[in-house]
Design goal:
The chain has 4 domains: 2-69, MutS, DNA mismatch repair protein, domain I, CATH 3.40.1170.60; 73-160, Reverse transcriptase/Diguanylate cyclase domain (Alpha-Beta Plaits, 2-Layer Sandwich); 166-219, DNA polymerase, domain 1 (Orthogonal Bundle); 236-335, 2-Layer Sandwich (Dna Ligase, domain 1). The chain is globular, with a radius of gyration of 23 Å. The chain has helices at residues 6-14, 42-45, 55-61, 72-87, 112-127, 139-146, 162-166, 179-187, 193-197, 201-208, 210-219, 250-270, 303-314; strands at 2-3, 23-25, 39-40, 66-68, 93-95, 101-103, 131-135, 154-156, 236-247, 273-284, 289-300, 323-331, 334-335. It is an alpha+beta fold. It has 13 helices and 13 strands. The two termini are 40 Å apart. A hairpin with a 5-residue loop joins β5 and β6. α10 (201-208) crosses α11 (210-219) and α12 runs antiparallel to α13 (303-314).
């Protein structure tokens, strides 16, 4: 289940005057400032605007679009509402993001199509929003199906549909195939999922290694035996900020790093964790990115210890050019023991 242009849809519901206008959500909502597109509604997508595009580029594509800031508090609230709806249909749910989830309905006596229609109706009633649902016998195909008839789609993929409906699709439609893999596959004349499925396993292992090669071989055939993950533990907690103007002012960089360290520590404590290492990330004006990590002798959630570790990392960068972005990540997490 995938909500349709979720952030933008929430904003359109709050502001009916936005209906039928191109709406772009991202950053502070100011396209003259640095930031990237979080969501664009379907009207904006007609102009070539898409997620992760710089706001300045989106503005060039469509200057008359309505640009709005990200309101994560409201989106999270709405996310909680529709996910409670899903839990009423099955207790076996994998939460895969603020706007989507996998649901195991195999124990439900109703037909999968009937359940999907009831979910869509119920979500529409309680939120006023639409969603797209993909139904299949595994997560991989359900994910692909959910994107096939957006917005407000309902797509069922059966085992016999792989060759006729999945194989003609571009390889990028496969879960886990990103821009770089797509470009490499095209360089060896593989453009569709069907063309990928025709490649012998040995060839894929040679090009992509054992793990990813096996994945591509099975995924191109619609095979996926992964279970729904109903509970997970975070591996790290992080924050990062992009400066509106590249800077070589050490105090500015240090102040932001200190602030983000406090924020990550607050979240760490709220979730009931301690951490073993601190990593600082610096992206320079030329987009080259470097990281430095400090590992502590023992698990901690002490602010002064983490602050010193972060500044130890910062001191190991050669800040001989302007900085575009700074970030901090707390890793090696472990649950705090209750007394």
């Amino acid at each position: 289940m995938d909500m349709d242009a979720f952030f933008a849809a929430v904003e359109e519901q709050r502001r009916p005057e936005l209906k039928n206008k191109p709406v772009v959500i991202g950053g502070s909502g100011d396209p003259t400032q640095r930031g990237v597109v979080s969501t664009a509604n379907y009207e904006a997508r007609k102009f070539g605007i898409h997620s992760a595009m710089p706001l300045k580029t989106a503005y060039k594509h469509c200057p008359h679009a309505v640009f709005l800031p990200v309101d994560m508090e409201e989106y999270s609230r709405m996310s909680g509402i529709f996910k409670n709806v899903l839990r009423n249909f099955s207790p076996v749910m994998e939460d895969v993001g603020i706007d989507e989830a996998f649901l195991d309905i195999s124990a439900n006596e109703k037909s999968s199509e009937q359940i999907a229609r009831e979910i869509k109706e119920r979500i529409g009633t309680v939120t006023g929003l639409t969603c797209s649902i993909g139904i299949a016998n595994n997560k991989l195909l359900a994910k692909i199906a959910s994107d096939m008839q957006k917005p407000n789609g309902l797509t069922i993929i059966k085992e016999g549909d792989i060759e006729s409906r999945i194989w003609p699709m571009p390889v990028r439609k496969l879960w886990g195939v990103g821009e770089k893999t797509e470009a490499y596959l095209k360089s060896i004349s593989i453009n569709t999922i069907g063309e990928l499925a025709a490649v012998p396993l040995e060839t894929l292992l040679e090009h992509f290694g054992r793990s990813y090669g096996h994945y591509l071989y099975e995924a191109s055939r619609g095979l996926d035996d992964s279970e729904l993950v109903t509970h997970w533990e975070p591996k790290s907690i992080s924050r990062e900020t992009t400066f509106q103007h590249d800077t070589d002012h050490w105090q500015t960089i240090a102040k932001n790093l200190a602030g983000m360290t406090r924020e990550t520590l607050t979240e760490l404590k709220e979730r009931g964790y301690m951490c073993k290492n601190v990593t600082v990330k610096i992206r320079f004006a030329d987009f080259k990115t470097q990281t430095r990590t400090k590992t502590m002798d023992e698990l901690t959630h002490n602010l002064e210890t983490l602050r010193k570790a972060a500044f130890y990392c910062l001191g190991n960068f050669e800040l001989n050019k302007k900085v575009r972005l700074v970030g901090v990540r707390l890793g090696g997490l472990a649950k705090m023991e209750n007394d």
